Amino acid sequence: MQKKITARFYHTQSGTSPVLEWLRSLPVDDRYAIGQDLARVEFRWPIGMPLCRALSDGLWEVRSTLPSRRIARLIFCAEAGELFVLHGFIKKTQKTPAVDLSLAYKRMKEIKS
């Protein structure tokens, strides 16, 4: 089976990847669960709930339940046949925090320009 879309991680102009750094800070089991969910999106795109949900204005989220009994989200956009992972965080409230959404929007604008 081939990937329908390839995931790429957002990189700053200095070359760092804040999403990868965040992922590497998580326990191994949690990283594995998030990686599995991201791979499912790559192989089954377009995919809907419960794994993936459209947010607004071109942003989507991968919804992961972690072995550590926490909930994680990866926010991404799909552009030019690729999936760009823009932001990742541990969810602590029911609604996605505005600061996380605005950061993802800012990064999406950088990618599109």
Describe the structure using short key phrases:
113 residues; 5-stranded mixed sheet; 3 helices
Give the arrangement of secondary structure elements.
Layout: E1 6-9, H1 18-24, H2 28-44, E2 52-54, E3 59-65, E4 71-79, E5 82-91, H3 98-112
Parallel strand pairs: 1-5
Antiparallel strand pairs: 2-3, 3-4, 4-5
Description of the molecule:
- The protein contains three helices and five strands, in the order βααββββα.
- It has helices spanning 18-24, 28-44, 98-112; strands at 6-9, 52-54, 59-65, 71-79, 82-91.
- Strands 1-5-4-3-2 form a five-stranded mixed sheet.
- It has 113 residues and is α+β, with helices and mostly antiparallel strands.
- β3 (59-65) and β4 form a beta hairpin.
- The protein is globular.
- The longest helix has 17 residues, at 28-44.
- The mean pLDDT is 96.
- The N and C termini lie far apart (32 Å).
In brief, what are we looking at here?
With 113 residues, the chain is α+β, with helices and mostly antiparallel strands.
Order of helix and strand elements from N to C terminus: EHHEEEEH
Number of helices: 3
Structural class by SSE content? alpha+beta
Beta-strand share of residues: 25-35%
Average residue-wise pLDDT: 96
Q: How much is the radius of gyration in Å?
A: 13 Å
Instruction: Give the end-to-end Cα distance, rounded to a whole number of Å.
Output: 32 Å
> What overall form do the CA principal axes indicate?
globular
Low-confidence stretches: none
Largest sheet: spatial strand order: 1-5-4-3-2
The description of the largest β-sheet is: 5 strands, mixed
- Tally of DSSP β-strands: 5
> What is the helix content?
25-40%
